[in-house]
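Translate sequence into structure tokens.
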Amino acid sequence: MEGLAPGSGLPELEAAARPLVHAMQSYHLVTFGCQMNQHDSERMAEVLQSAGYHAANGLEDADLVLLNTCSVREKAEHKLRSEVGRLGLLKRRRPDLVIAVAGCVAQQEGERLLRRLPQIDLIVGPDNLGELPELLRQVDLGGPPAVRAVFDLDAPRFLAAAPSGRAAPTAYVTVMKGCDERCSFCIVPHTRGPERYRAAREVVAEIELLVRHGVREVTLLGQTVNSYADPGGSATRESGFAVLLGLIAERVPELRRLRYTSPHPRHLTPALIRAHAELAVLCRHVHLPVQSGSDRVLKRMIRRYTAADYAERVAALRSAVPGVTLSTDIIVGFPGETREDFEATLRLVDAIGYTGVFGFKYSQRPYTPALRLEDDVPEAEKSARLAELFRLSEAQRRAHLASLVGGVEAVLVEGLGQNGSFSGRTERNEIVHFSSVTDPIGDVVDVRIVRAFKNSLEGEPVDASLGAAGRPAASAAPLARGDGRRGLPLLRSP
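Result follows.
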């Protein structure tokens, strides 16, 4: 199968677009996991459509069901097994149904997954998504179940967006993949490989294309996104990501907002902090995973910073960018975490004042160094600590949202929200719902905040022509505009 995948960049996606003669015509995508997986699913959909497939009305109507998987959390693997079991029942009624598994679990397990779940017809890793049409052709010709999970180490490939018509207001763009950090709890280096970087010119070209099709906000993606260094440039890790941000701001002035996820605290460099201070397009929100507030636990996690190091970098960012908000990831119950260690985490959360905390109970992951440590925190204690962490973080979030009531926020409108209202986000990542008598999707609207909820805000447009809060949105709003993604959740888990 060597040489079947398209190369990196925009033109090569067209090389994978040769229409195929096949029995399979329709597909249904199921996505588990993070923004990277969501982005991969969007690219897979484009590859399939360019090869002659169309999206099915639902799972029951699909000739091909493609499960895009995550292995960062054990729960995602359980979901995969459950989903394949359910599809196996459907396949008994429809033997021609093709079940394919992509993503991190595909890379992690490979042929072992076929042995455990014989209902699967194809397994394809994250670096082989461009090969999907040819791999499916082999399945369609009656070949045996296939596994294609090979890292593109020598010639990294990055599938670029191929929008047709007007795109959604927000989009993801990959700038790097893989991870060299080797945190002891993390399976990503095994499932995504070592760090590989995309040429800055390709990143800029994709963003230019997206903006021409109506995208207003781009989120740059990478497992350790701020370790980026242009493979064709001279910038190092200390400045490479900041240089890329500056290049995007210069070359694509029509872009309204720029975000990135997920950075590593070690790479929140002075150059990156200066970029936040100097580039108006950069949003005043950073998701900065800390994982623990205990130096002892951070050392066992191989995070390579202390709680004081983290707090110092946050202070420098806040000094340079007044009003910037932060969210984070935290693992509770890591092997050896004592009550004193956990209280250090609570103290750090209290001191930093996050507007969002994504907390998780530690679970053992295959191929990780932490497997050598005894998982000695009882499950009940992990649950209790997680609940305590959430009580603190939710109180911080509620206080932050309440402080915004009465003020005016600039909201990039992303889609329809609850009860026919519109929803969008501020540059600090607060979710805002409001009503409008016109369709403002894709616009940046000034909204006066009138009410704070647990995780979002309600407001009314300052511009009277859009209508006040409480007025129903126009039923004639053009729901067909865009690419159908406006129904995606606005609160995205990093």
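Note: The first strand starts at residue 26 and ends at 31.
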